[in-house]
């Protein structure tokens, strides 16, 4: 079997700035559409989404319609798309149907969710296609289980999760980070809390942190994989590798681990930098230095690629200057920058003194 594991697509995210809104909105669909095209062209057996398909729980009707358009080629090719909910697409009001449930009802995804018994144990009922609900799906000789986002105490649930699984050839979808690997601050578990999963599951498909990483068992065999997000979702992600995993269960590596290949995506250029204007005597000189430094940063960020997409910039201005810092207003900086680059989105943190 060959499958794609992606996560944290964040469809629906954009900037409220009217010039950037539709372009930035399209970025996330562009990333998702590319993965789906790779799945269809590569004729994989199934695709996994490790949570945060949507940026928010309450998406717009437009985002729902666009998502269906994106998923249609997978459905037409009869490639099952197995998904879980992340913290971003979690719906707290249980009386309201979620958009993820709707996609599952309509047969575009198989949304996996566990049930709990009265003793806090986990139950993974077999997925029911008619209802679009379940916790466990079988594809060929593989057994796929889905957990979604279960909160900050996820580590203490691992034993009960493992107890609920009695099959072999198991894969788990789990929207959780692992401390020290995951760049996010909440919703993580400790490395040693995760390790028992290696005995029950051949592949733990993680999501949550937008930076890719792979977790090894204490004896050095990889078993848990976080692909990160295929697009740069937030400032701070400029240095992360972006893409998804292509997995082949027939090719075995260390300790029987599946062959896993990271496939790079094509995210929009992003630059986050500190601009040192220390000692500049007037705002003209400072502006000129600002433009020179930003130009160099962009060359560096593009690293020889001919990417012509307008970048996302977050610039922090620092240093002691001999004029009033307010003279470098965001508008003035933006105007000066126009001659160098037209960013899709510019954030300035003026910390000049
Ligand atoms: Mn996310």
Structure description:
- The chain is α/β, with parallel strands linked by helices and 353 residues long.
- The chain has two domains: 2-264, Metallo-dependent phosphatases (Purple Acid Phosphatase, chain A, domain 2); 270-350.
- The protein has helices at 21-41, 61-76, 99-105, 158-163, 191-194, 197-200, 283-302, 330-337; strands at residues 2-6, 46-49, 81-83, 110-111, 115-116, 122-123, 136-139, 142-148, 170-175, 177-178, 188-189, 203-207, 213-216, 222-226, 243-252, 258-264, 270-276, 312-318, 345-350.
- It has a six-stranded mixed β-sheet with strand order 4-3-2-1-15-16, with helices on one face. A six-stranded mixed β-sheet has the order 7-8-9-12-14-13. A three-stranded parallel β-sheet has the order 17-18-19, covered by helices on one side.
- α1 packs parallel to α2 (61-76).
- The structure holds manganese (II) ion.
The low-pLDDT segments are: none
Order of helices and strands: EHEHEHEEEEEHEEEHHEEEEEEHEHE
Strand order of the largest sheet: 4-3-2-1-15-16
Heteromolecules bound:
manganese (II) ion
Helix percent reads 10-25%
Q: Which structural class matches the secondary elements?
A: alpha/beta
Task: Note the gap between the termini.
Answer: 60 Å
Strand runs, count: 19
Number of domains: 2
Main sheet record? 6 strands, mixed
Q: What is the CATH class designation of the largest domain?
A: Alpha Beta
CATH architecture name of the largest domain: 4-Layer Sandwich
The total count of helices amounts to 8
Shape: elongated
| Fourth CATH level, the homologous superfamily of the largest domain | Metallo-dependent phosphatases
């Amino acid at each position: 079997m060959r499958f794609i594991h992606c996560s944290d697509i964040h469809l629906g995210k954009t900037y409220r700035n009217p010039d950037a809104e539709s372009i930035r909105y399209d970025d996330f669909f562009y990333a998702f559409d590319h993965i789906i095209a790779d799945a269809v062209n590569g004729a994989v057996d199934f695709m996994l989404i490790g949570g945060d398909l949507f940026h928010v729980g309450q998406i717009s009707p437009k985002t729902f319609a666009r998502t269906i358009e994106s998923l249609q080629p997978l459905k037409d090719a009869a490639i099952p798309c197995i998904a879980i909910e992340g913290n971003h697409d979690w719906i707290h009001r249980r009386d309201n149907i979620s958009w993820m449930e709707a996609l599952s009802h309509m047969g575009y995804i198989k949304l996996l969710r566990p049930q709990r018994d009265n003793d806090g144990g986990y139950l993974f009922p077999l997925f029911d296609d008619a209802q679009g609900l379940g916790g466990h799906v079988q594809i060929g000789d593989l057994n796929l289980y889905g957990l979604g986002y279960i909160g900050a105490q996820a580590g203490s649930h691992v034993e009960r999760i493992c107890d609920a699984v009695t099959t072999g050839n198991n894969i788990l979808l789990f929207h959780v980070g692992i401390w020290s690997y995951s760049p996010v601050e909440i919703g993580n578990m400790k490395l040693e809390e995760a390790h028992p999963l290696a005995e029950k599951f051949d592949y733990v498909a993680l999501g949550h942190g937008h930076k890719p990483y792979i977790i090894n068992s204490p004896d050095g065999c990889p078993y848990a994989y976080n692909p990160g997000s295929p697009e740069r979702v937030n400032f701070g992600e400029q240095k992360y590798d972006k893409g998804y995993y292509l997995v082949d269960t027939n090719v075995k590596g260390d300790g029987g681990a599946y062959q896993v290949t990271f496939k790079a995506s094509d995210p929009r250029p992003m630059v986050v930098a500190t601009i040192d204007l220390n000692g500049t005597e007037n705002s003209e000189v400072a502006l000129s230095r600002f433009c020179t430094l930003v130009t160099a940063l962009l060359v560096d960020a593009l690293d020889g690629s001919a990417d012509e997409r307008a970048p996302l910039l977050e610039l922090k201005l620092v240093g002691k200057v001999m004029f009033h810092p307010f003279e470098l207003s965001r508008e003035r900086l933006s105007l000066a920058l126009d001659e160098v680059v037209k960013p899709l989105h510019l954030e300035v943190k003026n910390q000049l003194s």
